[in-house]
Fold:
Amino acid sequence: MLAENNPTVHQVSPKQKTSWFKESWISPLALLPSMAAIIIFIYVFIGFSFWVSISNWRTLKQDLTLRDPLLATYGDLIRTPRFQADLRNTLVFTIIFITLAIIVGLGLAILLEKKIVGKGFFRNIILFPYALSFIVTGVAWRWIFNPETGINLFFDLFGINSILTQAGMEPLKPKWTTNPDVWFQINGILEQIFPAAGNIFVKLGIPAALIPVAIAATWQLSGFVMAMYIGGLGTVSQEVREAARIDGATEWQVYRKVVIPMLRPITISVFVILLHVSLKIFDLIFAMSGVGPGFATDVPAIFVFEIMFKATRYNLGSAAAIVMLILVAIIIVPYLISTLRED
Amino acid sequence: MGNQRSPIKVGNAVTIAFLLLITLFYLMPLYVMVVNGLKDAQSVSLSTMWNLPSSLSLGGFAEAWERLSPNMRNSFTMVIPATILSSLVGAINGYLFAKWKFPGSDILFTVMLFGFFIPYQAILLPMVQFLQYIGVYGTVWGLILVHVVYGLPVTTLIFRNFFAQVPKEMFEAARVDGANIFTTFTHIMLPLSIPSFVVVGIFQFTNIWNEFLFAVTVVPNPQSQPITVALNNLSGSFSVDWNVVMAGAVVAALPTIVVYIFLGRYFVEGLMAGSIKG
Structure:
């Protein structure tokens, strides 16, 4: 663009012209090693995993002959009660975790965007868990939600349990991650509508043990959500808010009708990122609760890991991994394509 | 104005009190780890988890350090080269994708970026076989390799976003002065991008240090495992006292805590840059 305004630049010598031509090839050539690595380590490897998932390889001995029918392993997978529980858990965990993380993160961002003493201190403390390993935090949360200690000690310390026992009630002692209950079961209703739901071998509902896990995940990622929203709030000018206030909007309406709708792009980014974290969640649950009672806190990521590397049922594990990939791709591919178009 | 001041102050006091409560919640796990790590093996008990130690004991930390320090060394041996390499290659890629576009380069970038989002379970088995085939399975070299390759999408993304913001005029001026694709990079772009290197470096350091799935699948030998795996083993072991596990969690988190305390500003920038779209 600059060259157009500057006629002298047009007088490029022939020698430079050829170097321009050559230079245009350098970029793709220099990107070649990285692209080759990505193609192999991502796309070729995914292709191989898919091949294994349709093969007969189900013991330590490698067997890449194809199964007949081809997708039989996927049929096995969908009929595996543990995997059914995993899909249920992923759905329930995702809904609870994303809802909590967005509400908490947005709320904190709104509080901490204002002029408040110690704003930086609060922000730093809230974001701090994001810098820690899920294994570290999983180890700590495992004890905080242990029924014999942690949170449950508060019910004694604050005298709640002595009040309850005096009133002739049971003392409060939730089982947290060791609770096998599944709340709000809908199997019966579902079977009346879809007879095929009779093939669902797990209790469809909210596994109680997942709630502490979702709290721990929210604790760890809400700071990230907050940081994203604080960045976004900075772009919503004070003039816009002031204009709404002059029009008679209450503070609540300013946020609900003006600010939060303007944060839509941030909300979409946050949602996509939290969703892919949630679909892939592994370390936190692995360290905090493991698979849980009756697979109440098991997730596909742990299923793949254990079925492949402990049970050595490679085709079943690979099929589950491909299902995970498809779930993530359904969210991510449209997101990536839309950002590419915007560019 | 004078009338408005006092309700605002009261509102602020309520907000601050509320935020202090929130702070307690966010510090709770760290409190549990530090306080119980500082108790001795006799006085650490489930029923007194929230109590401060009656007498400070470094025994838990000493034992945790003895058990975990070899793995901490493994983590450093892995994380330093992996961070440097993935940042450098990411800088080159980001420069080319931002300033030397060619037909299809945006599509290639998207193809690369998809790698950031995939669940690694979908590549784990062929990756392990490939590492076995080239002879680096079970070694820190294998871990460095996978962290560099799987780190490329995000390091490239952050640097591409950074270089895209460098004014076109600056780039064109360098071209007019006769700088070629390499010298523009080394003389103009690289010096400009030093803050980005800090951001990407911290981002990669934290991610790779905290990573668990590759660590546990690529290296089966406990002696060679990174610290996240060693901590998980320590926590699952019944022969280890609870104060040691808690002290171990602090030890394993220490490098990232130090980075966060001293370079927190860059940490925030990194996670924004790594998450806001390209």
